[in-house]
Amino acid sequence: MEFSHVPVLLDECIDGLNINPDGIYVDGTLGGAGHSSEICKRLSRKGMLIGIDRDEEALSVSSRRLEGFDCRKAFVHGNYSDIKNILRELDIDEINGALLDLGVSSYQLDNPERGFSYMNDAPLDMRMDRSESMTAYDIVNEYSKDELYRIIKSYGEERWAGRIADFIVRARSEKSIETTFELVEIIKAAVPASARRNGPHPAKRTFQAIRIEVNDELGGVKRAVDDFIDLLAPKGRLAIISFHSLEDRIVKDTYVERENPCTCPPEIPICVCGKKPEIKRINKKPIVPSKLQENENPRARSAKLRVCEKLGNV
């Protein structure tokens, strides 16, 4: 299989970044380099792209795809949440823009051996970074019923989280749950037939929840947004695409905090805390895909893009 490089909200991201041809830009979720290809097209020889990904296969494929562009490039196997250390290693103090696409690449979803999809039978894995030790198998077979309920309810927003957790624990008491299809059948048994008739696949939300837990997808988002804002040069921009309501809430709330950091009580007419706005939000409401984009790429349906710009007086 090849890494998909059909980028979500491509034109909107590129417009949002307002690219300086001589600037330094970070793609913190390089994937198939769909977004990065367009960034590189707009960079001069002085400009630089830093591509980061947790998946070494993605880095290998994308570095080859970007060979033909003249700008400087650096490829890093790592997590975007470690951006300050990554830039320190590259001896870079500030950047002119960054993009984070918080979705899972189509390659990872569709590659059966990766265990992300409830549509393909595979070992329970779901690791974005295959050098990490914890897999979906560990969560499904070792988490307590309460822990399973917590992640399925919180990360999957699954109505039947309690029943699913109970059915998983009962099933694994007889034998370990080893494959995606084994887990799917357990989930189907847990979800009442009436609830299975309408809506998404009954395993969708539980698989999403387990994937988020395996990869600690929410744990690093808040810190990463703050760190990327810290690293932006004046007028530099940060564009973030989220696919989950919890991620989008973290991005939105962090932008709002950095745009209006004042902690003074509202009844005080003049600010005395001394905290000044550091960014401005380019779009107050999230940018979402058009119907045409949704039809061309159904996985884009839940995408939301938020862009902010570092203020020049910070």
Describe the structure.
The protein has 14 helices and seven strands. The protein is globular, with a radius of gyration of 21 Å. It is an alpha/beta fold and 314 residues long. The longest helix is centred in the last third of the chain and has 15 residues, at 245-259. It starts with 9 loop residues before the first helix and ends with a strand. Strands 3-2-1-4-5-7-6 form a seven-stranded mixed sheet, sandwiched between helices. The mean pLDDT is 92. 40% of the residues lie in helices and 14% in strands. Helix 8 (161-172) packs across helix 9. Helix 2 (34-41) links the parallel strand 1 (24-27) and strand 2 (48-53).
Output the structural class: alpha/beta
Helix content: 40-55%
The total of helices stands at: 14
Distance between the termini: 46 Å
Report the mean per-residue pLDDT as an integer. 92
Main sheet, how many strands, which sense, barrel? 7 strands, mixed
Beta strand % = 5-15%
Shape: globular
Strand order of the largest sheet: 3-2-1-4-5-7-6
Query: What's the β-strand tally?
Result: 7
Could you spell the SSE succession in H and E letters?
HEHEHEHEHHHHHHHHEHEHE
Q: What Rg do the Cα atoms give?
A: 21 Å
Catalogue the unreliable spans: none
